[in-house]
Write a structure and sequence with these properties.
It is a multi-pass membrane protein. 66% of the residues lie in helices and 0% in strands. The protein has helices spanning 10-23, 25-45, 50-54, 60-72, 77-103, 116-128, 148-158, 165-178, 180-199, 214-226, 233-255, 264-287.
Length: 298
């Protein structure tokens, strides 16, 4: 559960699962089903990947698959069947993306697969079943109206395709439990997205039209607390800020395409900023004078 937010922490995962159960126990069950199908299948297919499974890296795409079909179709036999089949498909897509990123010119940028399998599988299946898929109202946990604060908290629930201030608050707590940097950068990403979105006049209505904050939360955590830990705090702050703005810029373009937007804004902005960072590193390496090694006579 915690790897949905690019973290490895079991207590945080338990809190996230609780946040989903607050929305609807059936919703949490669908998420668990997707995660179990993906992780258990990989566990029995490839013993070399068992450490990745323990780290939660082979289950979070399946978890999001379960959340998506619960949202798109509801709690039906069809949604359960699609969750199982699509969770299995993410295993194949994960392997393809992993090999592609490792064997091309992109290899030295160390691009993560992240939620790519989830987006590709759900997007393809949605397009194929366009006449069948009917999106019911998004599940929403108990909440009180606190104006912008409600919208802010709900942004964190949006990451797992749910909504509700209480669920969002539990997820924020989970982030700080896992890593204070993840919590801090996640809060910063959501706040910056709301500020920039408000300045641009974007409507802010979680899961009832355009979503402007959940990809910002993910990319802020990804760069601020997960993939750029070897970089300075200033570099991470600047990278997160750029990536958050990119999510807002990319989103309107993706809405024009068929199928749901999902976490594509997060993926595109994350990969773009990581490639940019690697490009900057290469330019610096070219300008670093080579050390001349001299040998003293014996």
């Amino acid at each position: 559960m915690s790897q949905i937010f690019l973290l490895r922490n079991a207590p945080a995962g338990a809190l996230i699962l609780l946040a989903l159960a607050v929305v609807d126990v059936r919703f949490a069950g669908m998420v668990l089903l997707g995660a179990a199908v993906e992780s258990l299948t990989v566990y029995y297919l490839d013993t070399d990947l068992r450490q990745e499974i323990r780290d939660g890296l082979r289950g979070y795409n399946g978890a999001l698959i379960g959340a998506a079909w619960a949202i798109f179709i509801g709690y039906t036999g069809l949604s359960v069947t699609l969750t199982v089949l699509c969770a299995l498909a993410t295993i194949v897509v994960y392997g393809i993306l992993q090999r592609m990123f490792a064997s091309t010119r992109l290899a030295d940028a160390l691009l993560p697969v992240a939620t790519g399998p989830f987006c590709i599988v759900i997007g393809g299946t949605w397009t194929a079943l366009d006449s069948v898929v009917v999106t019911p109202p998004a599940p929403s946990g108990p909440t009180v109206e606190l104006g912008l604060l409600t919208d802010f908290l709900s942004t964190f629930a949006d990451v797992v395709l749910a909504s509700g201030a209480l669920s969002g608050l539990l997820i924020i707590v989970a982030l700080f439990v896992a890593d204070w940097r993840a919590g801090a950068f996640g809060v910063y990403g959501a706040a910056l997205a709301m500020a920039v979105g408000g300045a641009l006049g974007l409507s802010w209505s979680p899961l009832s039209g355009s979503l402007h904050g959940y990809s910002a939360v993910l990319v802020a955590i990804a760069l601020g607390a997960t993939f750029w830990n070897n970089r300075s705090l200033l570099t991470r702050f600047l990278g997160v800020s750029l990536a958050v703005v990119l999510t807002l810029a990319v989103e309107p373009l993706l809405i024009l395409l068929p199928g749901p937007t999902l976490t594509w804004p997060f993926l595109i902005s994350l990969w773009a900023v990581m490639l940019l960072g690697r490009g900057v590193d290469k330019r610096r390496e070219l300008h670093v004078p080579a050390k001349i090694v001299t040998y003293e006579p014996a």
